[in-house]
Amino acid sequence: MNPTELALGQAYFYVCGAFALAGALFTVTAKNPIRGAMGLLLMILAIAGLFLALHAQFLAAIQLIVYAGAIVVLFLFVIMLLGPSATPPHDHRGRIPRTVGGALFGAGGLLAMWLVVKAAPTHPMIAQAAGAAAAKGAEASKLLAGAPADFGSVDAFGRIIFTQALVPFELSSALLMVAIVGAVAVARGRSKSLAEEAREETPVAQAPAREMKPEAYP
Amino acid sequence: MIPVEHYIALSAILFTIGGVGFLVRRNVLVTLMSIEIMLNAVNVALVAFNRVRSDSHTGQVFAFFLIAAEAAEVAVGLAIVLSLFRVRRTVRSDEADLLKN
Questions:
Q1: What is the pLDDT of residues A141-183, one digit of tens each?
Q2: pLDDT tens column, A122-132
Q3: HSE on the CB side for A185, CA within 13 Å?
Q4: I want to staple A67 with a disulfide (CB 3.0 to 4.6 A). Which of A34, A44, B22, B74 is the partner?
Q5: Which of residues 84-123 of A touch B (CB under 8 A)?
Q6: Is residue A41 within 8 Å of B46, Cβ to Cβ?
Q7: C-alpha Rg value of chain B to the nearest Å
């Protein structure tokens, strides 16, 4: 592999990684959920690009079809169904505990990342793989060099899915079936009579819903 | 080529961003998107580690099943958001307090 290809590969990783981080940050900070969904889409596309760089062609296609094609569209459907209510007005209650919790989680996550990245080169699994790569003639630092030609292809992937992973594959179809039935049952809501019963039992539900103020709930 | 640590670092940063978003944001839709970010970060780590040990496809198959589970989770999660909106006319997680008191 010549130096130009190496530099291109590195640039590809950093561009995709930067887009993924930017998309994730945009999603988390967006006021408007539609913009958040667009940030999510950007992150998903960038991660599909990373999958391509990692020899996971089939997963990159699945990522595009399932995430960009189904999940983001589902988010957009729900956001548009909710209309303006999807962006509730800002208020500052409970801001400090949330900020402290978020900061603690962030610090913990970054600390864990630092520990893992520091320990990774000496870990037996990675060291062994580096040794195998070195035996093949690749440099030990280029851990990601050298893989079977069909690694990650639909051919190899399908063989695994329908032999070793056949039972979990069939079970995942049952999971999706249950999820569809559950989503329909939950989203359809209760029948009219049950809803009216509940309204009579709980005085809270009697108030006109749109005028509910947070102060009304001690 | 890029060493695997870079991918793991990217995955950890993405997971941290998603976790902070999950904890800090109160819009249920953004919370669900944060969960998506975290699961995507896990997928990146799985595929990157699988690339190191390219004699089997275990990590990629695991990521495949994670994507299937995630599609199910989003479908049910968004149905719950719609149901919450029908009951309380809100998408803010701190106003979903019917079980409080």
A1: 444 556 777 788 888 888 999 998 999 999 999 999 999 999 9
A2: 777 667 766 66
A3: 6
A4: A44
A5: 85-88, 93-94, 98-99, 101-103, 105-106, 109-110, 112-113, 116-117, 120-121
A6: no
A7: 17
B18 with A24: CB under 8 angstroms?
Answer: yes
**Phi and psi, residue A137, nearest 5°:** 105, -5
pLDDT band at A136 (very low <50, low <70, confident <90, very high): low
Question: Tokens 């050298």 appear where?
Answer: A146
Q: Does A48 touch chain B (CB under 8 A)?
A: no
Q: Which of B23, B26, B79 is nearest to A88 (CA)?
A: B26
The answer to whether A138 and B23 have CB atoms below 8 angstroms apart is no
Gap between the Cα atoms of B25 and B18, Å rounded: 10
- Under a CB-based contact definition with an 8 Å cutoff, are residues A105 and A98 in contact? no
- Tell whether the model's pLDDT for residue A105 goes beyond 50: yes
Cα–Cα distance, B41 to A202 (Å, whole number): 42
Q: Which residue has the tokens 């902070």?
A: B20
DSSP chain B: ---HHHHHHHHHHHHHHHHHHHHH--BHHHHHHHHHHHHHHHHHHHHHHHHHSTT--HHHHHHHHHHHHHHHHHHHHHHHHHHHHHHHS--BGGG--TT--
Q: Tens digit of pLDDT for each residue in A14-66? A: 999 999 999 999 999 998 999 999 999 999 999 999 999 888 899 999 999 99
Indicate which of B6, B8, B15, B23 best probes the interface with A, i.e. most A CBs within 10 Å of its own CB: B23
How many residues are given for chain B?
101
Beta bridge partners of A19: none
Q: Which amino acid is at A196?
A: E
Say how far apart CA A87 and CA A48 lie, in whole Å.
Answer: 29
The position carrying tokens 């695997």 is B4
Cα dist. A49→A46, A63, B17 in Å? 5, 10, 20
Q: How far apart are CA A176 and CA A181, in angstroms?
A: 9
